[in-house]
Amino acid sequence: MNTYDVAVIPGDGVGREVADEGLKILDAVADKFGFGVKTVNYDWGCNYYLKHGAMNPADMLVTLKDFDAIFLGCIGDAGKVPDHVSLSLLLEIRKGFDQYVNLRPIRLYPGIQTPVRTATSQSVDFVVVRENTEGEYSRVGGFFKSDTPDAFALQTGVFTRKGCSRVMDYAFQLARERKMLGVGQTVGRVTNCSKSNALNYSMVFWDKIFDQVSAGYPDVTTDTALVDAITMWFVKNPEHFDVIVASNLFGDIITDLGAMLQGGMGFAAGANLNPEKQFPSMFEPIHGSAPKYAGKGIANPVATIESVRMMLEHLGELHAAQAIEKAIAQVLSGGEIKTKDMGGTHSTEQMGEAILGTLMAGN
After folding, report:
1. Is pLDDT above 70 for 78?
2. What is the CATH code of the structural domain delimited by 114-262?
3. Which of 71, 77, 142, 312 has the fewest beta carbons under 10 Å from its own?
4. C-alpha distances in angstroms, 36 versus 7, 49, 295, 305, 327?
5. CB within 8 A of 197, min separation 6: which ones?
6. Name one GO molecular function term (predicted).
7. What is the pLDDT of residue 22?
8. What whole-number distance in Å separates Cα of residue 276 and Cα of residue 257?
């Protein structure tokens, strides 16, 4: 029997509430499909910062490196710690473990309402592959002549050939796999998210590498769109997209719009992957910690449960992952259980229990 060691960082705000529901699903599906899971909780986050002056201990990466995966609730509470400080925990893990792929599936489950009229369960089923360790989030730059009339700041994006080409390779391989499986509406296409008309160094470099990488995948269709045009096409014709590859900043921005296509942030899950599995990968909902809702039991746990599904898929427990996906779809399409963000009154726990019950009753 395979046994997986999973580090759990519930984090801030609603993090613990949604993480609890995700862990219930993880334990149940492990029992159902005959594998083991051992979890260890770490109380790192904004409350830790208030006590210790840092979001996490200095040896965090040493502590985490031997785990098979990291399961994260949410990080951040601007009322306690400035966001640019609290983000350091995520960035340290992503970069320290070379989690260079941020994978964000954009799928609208049947039965879910979305504010975007063109979005249907038939038209919205694509994936954004975001570069996750460099680019615009490289934290290179500084403040100069602070508090003077001549004050200025520099923020430098770092784009390397290795960093660009490997995330693009991942995107093309994913498109090839989705084409083979017949997943999505427009299969076998990679869209390059760019802005080379204005960013005449970083994005011109990015585009050039995209063309070079694409030459190695003649069976995969390609196109290129400026990031502003992509936001428009997300709304106008989301069925156009299969796999989108984007830089760190652009991928971050367009996936929030993607979350609206799939019904809201409560349905949006993400994975920070080290595809070669030299280091543990990290799985999380992308909705943030929502401190104002903490302790009220109203946060939607679906994104967190989706992140469990992605974690199991990454670990190779495909049947368990598929069972979770089926249970989520069945509960959501039934329309009887709805959390506050869905226009209902059911609690975080009630949604989690509904998915858990459906999972355990399924074949």
Report:
1. yes
2. 3.40.718.10
3. 142
4. 14, 33, 30, 18, 21
5. 226
6. magnesium ion binding
7. 96
8. 29
> pTM score, two decimals?
0.93
Q: At what angle do helices 227-236 and 248-261 cross, to 10 degrees?
A: 10
pLDDT per position as a tens digit, 259-297? 999 999 999 999 999 999 999 999 999 988 989 888 999
Question: The tokens of 362 are what?
Answer: 């399924």
**How far apart, in whole angstroms, are the C-alpha atoms of residue 220 and residue 272?**
24
pLDDT tens by residue, 53-64: 999 999 999 999
- If phi > 0 it is left, if psi is from -120 to 50 it is alpha, else beta; for residue 130 that is beta
| CA–CA gap between residue 363 and residue 361 (Å, rounded) | 7
User: How far apart are the C-alpha atoms of 193 and 71, rounded to whole Å?
Assistant: 28
The CATH number of domain 1-99+275-362 is 2.60.120.380 = no
Q: Which of 89, 170, 157, 102 is nearest to 130 (CA)?
A: 102
pLDDT in tens, 35-52: 999 999 999 999 999 999
Q: Where in the chain is the domain with CATH 3.40.718.10?
A: 1-99+275-362, 114-262
CA 19 – CA 44 distance, rounded (Å): 14
* Nearest in space to 345 (alpha carbons), one of 300, 303, 305, 306: 300
What amino acid occupies position 168?
Answer: M
Decide if 125 contacts 117 (C-beta within 8 A).
no
Opening angle at CA 9, ends 4 and 14, nearest 5: 125
Q: Which residue, among 250, 106, 111, 264, has the nearest Cα to 186 in the 3D structure?
A: 106
Contact criterion met (CB below 8 Å) for 60 and 44: yes
Query: Residue for token digits 């779809």?
Result: 329
